[in-house]
Specification:
single chain
Length: 128
């Protein structure tokens, strides 16, 4: 029985799905496990080295000791030795887009009370 990673490589899929980088990033979650995958993010594959962003220096140090095991797991999941090395880089957490809790007043940034009054009057005229 052939592994799914090999079959995907042989199938004639769109170029986005068949790219080695996309396959390596997709295989990371399975190879690393759920707990490690929550604290890491695979970003790019450069000359056989998968660059993985980690939360902090502690995760970088701990995962460096597991490098050989993770590379072996990646080869099992992918069905080939696509990832030769792993490069762990600490990156600051990224903020996702958020919705505003309350709507912002348009006149909030206008510090001059006269200009604020003129702005409100002009808005009332446009609505009428």
């Amino acid at each position: 029985m052939e592994r799914a990673g090999r079959l995907i490589g042989k199938l004639k899929l769109s170029s986005v799905l068949a790219e080695p980088e996309a396959r390596a990033r997709a295989a990371w979650k399975v190879a690393a496990g759920e707990k490690i995958a929550r604290h890491t993010r695979p970003t790019v594959l450069v000359r056989g080295s998968l660059i993985v962003e980690v939360e902090d220096y502690i995760w970088q140090k701990q995962l460096s000791t597991l490098r050989a095991v993770l590379i072996r797991n990646m080869a099992k999941v992918l069905g080939e030795e696509l990832v030769i090395d792993l490069d762990f880089r600490p990156m600051p957490p990224r903020r996702l887009p958020q919705r505003a809790e309350t709507p912002r007043r348009m006149t909030e940034g206008i510090k001059d009370p006269v200009l604020e009054m003129l702005y409100r009057q002009s808005q009332k005229k446009e609505l009428a």
